[in-house]
Structures are given as structure tokens and as C-alpha cells.
Design a protein that fits this description.
Layout lengths: L1 H22 L4 E2 L1 E7 L2 E2 L3 E7 L10 E4 L5 E3 L1 E2 L8 E2 L1 E9 H5 L24 E4 L5 E7 L5
Parallel strand pairs: 2-11
Antiparallel strand pairs: 1-8, 2-3, 2-6, 4-5, 4-9, 5-7, 9-10
């Protein structure tokens, strides 16, 4: 009888932990910033912050598209449209929306920046997102001539 009580205790405990884990929400920090190349703003670029599993940071990504002045504001991609990025180490990837949308009716336009910035495994853009107040990141890519 005592053995059955211990088993029930452990099963109930594990189920409770499972439900708490499933319903817990990641800590998010609001992130905004600017994207430029050689000091000139880059508009129409999708900026995506991806939690870096190499440093134990897991979770969904957050992204936003730069305006004409290169400004962006990131939204957590969990369907809630909540502002923010999971706290911890992140890698940043970029997608040139002008290049991506070209080629339908005219000749394709090449990306305005090096393709390494588009690949998660090799992007040199790595940052730490801290908990607390809103953070601003100024990302200035080297110009292609540099």
C-alpha cells in the first residue's frame, strides 16, 4: 500500500511539473534598434533575433522589418504579437526584402549585404539580450567596398 502511494505521488508531481512547464512563458525583453551599412540606413530588411542554443538559450525567434530610416522593433513570433525577444544570447539574421521580392516582373536584384548575414550558422551578428528595460541595438554593417 505504501508503494502505491509513492508511485501516485511521483506521477502527480511529474504531471504538475509538465503542466507548469507547458504554460510558463519565456521572459521577454523589448528590443528596438537601427540597421545601417557604412553609416547609411537600410530600409526594408527583415531583422530576426534567434535564441542561440550554443549558449543554452532556447525558444522562438522575434523579428521586425526596418523602415526607411533603418529603425526596427521586434515582435515575438508565438502568435501573440507580443513585443520582445527571449532574454539571453541571440544570433541575428537579415533578409533583404527588396532583393527577395525582386525578379517577379524584372531582373532579380542582388542582396545589398553579404550573404553570411542571412545564415544562422555563420552570421557574425551575436548579442546578449538582458532582462529589464527596453534595449536598443545599433547594427552597422560594413559597406561592400570595405
Amino acid at each position: 500500500m505504501l508503494k502505491q502511494g509513492k508511485i501516485t505521488f511521483w506521477v502527480v508531481g511529474l504531471l504538475a511539473l509538465t503542466f507548469v512547464g507547458c504554460n510558463s512563458r519565456r521572459e521577454l525583453a523589448e528590443v528596438e534598434g537601427t540597421l545601417s551599412m557604412g553609416g547609411e540606413p537600410l530600409g526594408d530588411v527583415k531583422v530576426t533575433f534567434v535564441p542561440d542554443p550554443e549558449f543554452g538559450n532556447m525558444g522562438r525567434k522575434a523579428s521586425g522589418i526596418t523602415d526607411a530610416s533603418g529603425k526596427f522593433f521586434l515582435i515575438y513570433e508565438d502568435g501573440s504579437e507580443a513585443p520582445g525577444v527571449p532574454v539571453g544570447a541571440v544570433r541575428v539574421i537579415l533578409k533583404d526584402m527588396i532583393a527577395a521580392e525582386s525578379g517577379r516582373d524584372e531582373e532579380p536584384i542582388p542582396s545589398r549585404f553579404h550573404l553570411d548575414y542571412t545564415k544562422l550558422a555563420v552570421t557574425p551578428l551575436k548579442y546578449e539580450v538582458s532582462s529589464g528595460t527596453r534595449q536598443a541595438f545599433a547594427i552597422d554593417l560594413p559597406s561592400e567596398s570595405e
